[in-house]
Amino acid sequence: MAKQGINVSSQCRELISEIKAGQYKPVYLLMGEEAYYPDLVCQAIIDNCIDEFSKDFNETICYGADVTADQVISAARQFPMMADRVLVVVREAQLMKTLEQLSVYCEEPLESTVLVILMHGASADKRKALYKQALKVGAVVDSQPVRDYEIPAWITSYYDSRGLRIDPDAAALLGESVGSNLSTIVLETDKLLKALPEGTTRITADDIEKNVGVSRQFTVFELNKELSARNATKALKIAAHIGNSARFALPAAVSALYMEFNRILRYGALLQRNPYPSQEDKARALAGVNPYFYRQYDQAVRNYPVPKAMKIISLLCEYDYLGKGGDGSVATDPGELLVELTAKILSA
Prior knowledge:
Layout: H1 3-20, E1 27-31, H2 36-48, H3 55-58, E2 59-63, H4 69-76, E3 86-91, H5 103-107, E4 113-118, H6 129-137, E5 139-142, H7 151-161, E6 165-166, H8 168-178, H9 182-195, E7 202-203, H10 205-213, H11 220-228, H12 232-243, H13 250-273, H14 279-285, H15 294-303, H16 306-323, H17 334-346
Parallel strand pairs: 1-4, 1-5, 2-3, 3-4, 6-7
């Protein structure tokens, strides 16, 4: 998992643990392009901060488009009624025209108020007073997207946190099927667990294939696998099937292939320097890859030594350009381009 992803995940676990223990910061600034962690912390605060019977008097939940900074500050400066604290939550705070003015309240927040500023798909300006004051007196969660190649590792970690074990190929298949939106992965996991027998603790690729609606036989993950083995017949068949999918996008497929051959290149370069690398050296060269798949890369570097891998990466850059509309004089079907690219990789 990305270092950023690990840090935010551990930060949020710690914050939620404090929240459940009744330990609150006066201000929470929850922001970032990836909404999963900000939403998680915000919901934990709403669930635990105010007793159900006193929410009517001590809880205010509003939306940035509907309020001004003055209104939020006025609510935050109220004293609790028959309760320990007041909770004020501003959802979609990025829509507040006067958002930055909340820094005035953050300079001297009330100890009896918990102010949550929740930004969806946006971040506060780190050069300005609101961010700096929130960081000084409260907690700031800055949640950035997990990179595509790190998603299988994130899925594995998430399943571990729920007391589940997911096979590496199942994690890769789930990630390719649902994408890199963490909230979607969590939602699909909940749906998957409802479909599986009660008490299931191990998730396999078969479980993903049957219940998430994806065929592992025809995915970019499988295409990479067959290309690594230089299995031309299967690779071309998979490429043709992927290219005919209604959801197919050539730039996304090329990006996945590029990441794969970049790993093959790095691993090949490592083996040139040291034919017997340590597990730590392998992990650095194959960043984001589960050790379960290392054997696949041993095979790949035999089929694509460094000069070939470099040639293929150059080829992938060319097709990335074509897939994004480059050379508009040639109107070629994206699916046909993927098959053509696959053939060229195999013949490199």
